Amino acid sequence: MELNKKSKNIAKYFLLIAALVLLVKYSEVVLSQLKVIGYAALPLIFGLAMAYVLNILMKKIEKIYFPNSKNKTIVESRRIVSILLSILLIIGIIVIVALIVIPEFVRAVSVIIAAIPGALENVKAFINANSNNYEVFGRGLETLQIDIDGIIGNIMTAASGVLKNLLNSILSFMGSFTSGLVNFLIALVFSIYVLVDKEKLSRQIRKIMNAFLKSKTIEKLSYVFDVTNEAFSNFIIGQCMEAVIIGVLCTIGMIIFRFPYAVTVGVFISVTALIPVVGAYLGAALGAFMILTVSPLKALLFLIFITILQQLENNLIYPKVVGSSIGLPGIWVFAAITIGGGLGGIVGMLLSVPVAATIYKLFTVKVNNRLKDPEVKQI
Question: Which of 64 and 134 is assigned the larger pLDDT?
């Protein structure tokens, strides 16, 4: 019996080694197939992420949707109604933001495009009127034989080329948008299925774990999952709160300093601020562009204003609001964002803070437990 058990263990190790050898030998083929599988499963992965975010909002709605009612219809409809209200609420916010930002942005672009020919004519008239008053290397501008019409023609040609490339980019974007829309709908439907049956899925996962893992391992995995879930959910809530705060402060400041497009820019900065730390700068670029159509000086002053506000947000508001909500000190929030941005760009920034909060809490608990152990030498 003992010999038979040893033979089985040897066979397992042999198969494991053989599998590793084959994996290394055919690593390129395996990786290419994994990429294909990953790309095919991307809508489902995105659906799980959507389900996680919607679940936070759905649980809030379930608590206020007649929580004490015993009516069978209300009880049975609570989950699906909460899911639909969560989706409609998010879609409503996106539509409102789009209705506020897009028309003003289009108007600003139209003002810039309409002003280009007149500005070029003014430059031409100014140079022609003052060509005798300036010298370059001791000669007047008229002696340099500057072809003003040619320069303007080159500028217009370059502008038309930029517009043509922009049009091609828009057409390419539309094609990608169509494909992305299909994947989005698949992800949305999958997320709804996950939310409707989340308790059943949880029981199935627990059943599988009980079948293949030891009780201590299950307990440790459950604890890690609970800590991770708490960190990510608190991060999402804190990030949304921080985005609202920075958007409101920006709007109020722009109204006080009489900057144009105060509400539009404030809303856009609030949306882009969902990207940690650097997001508001993206909104600032759009805001400066829009204000430029009204007054270049005000656009410059706006950049100074938003830089000061962003420093205040980075060093005071963000660490306090987001850092305190996930239990991560401000210094580690800043460190996590820096490292995450360097490794994974915007996605790295989004994931770095909750990941760092999870590691921080697990490590803190481990250290405290070690210090309570009488066998650990105290310093």
Answer: 64
Pairing type for strands 135-136 and 139-140 reads antiparallel
Report the C-alpha gap between 230 and 325 in whole angstroms. 10
- Tokens standing for 181? 């829309």
Mean pLDDT in the chain? 77
Q: How far apart are CA 91 and CA 94, in angstroms?
A: 5
Is residue 150 predicted with pLDDT exceeding 80?
no
Q: Would you mind telling me the total number of residues written for the chain in this entry?
A: 379
Distance in angstroms (rounded) separating the CA atoms of residues 108 and 292: 9
Write out the H or E segment, with its range, that includes residue 139. Answer: strand 139-140
CA proximity to 268, closest of 303, 239, 243: 243
The pair of three-digit structure tokens given for residue 351, joined into one six-digit string? 């994931």
Q: Angle 276-279-281 (CA atoms, 0-180°, nearest 5)?
A: 135
Mean pLDDT to the nearest integer, 209-235 = 88
Over residues 32-41, the pLDDT tens digits come to 777 888 788 8
Instruction: Give the list of residues 6+ apart from residue 45 with CB closer than 8 angstroms, or none.
Output: 38
25 versus 63: which is more confidently predicted?
A: 63
Comparing CA positions, the residue from 250, 279, 265 lying closest to residue 350 is 279
**Which residues in 300-333 are b (16+ Cβ under 10 Å) and which e?**
ebbbebbeebbeebbeebbbebbbebbebebebb
Rounded to 10 deg, the angle between the 279-292 and 296-312 helix axes is 160
* Residue 136: its H or E element: strand 135-136
140 φ, ψ (degrees, to nearest 5): -70, 160
AA identity, residue 3: L
Q: Which residue has the tokens 């040897």?
A: 10
Rounded Cα distance, 141 and 123, in Å: 14
Over the stretch 103-137, which tens digit does the pLDDT of each residue have?
A: 776 776 676 676 666 666 666 666 666 655 545 44
Residue 246's φ and ψ, nearest 5 degrees, are -65, -35
Where b means 16+ CB within 10 Å and e means fewer, 126-147 reads eeeeeeeeeeeeeeebeeeeee
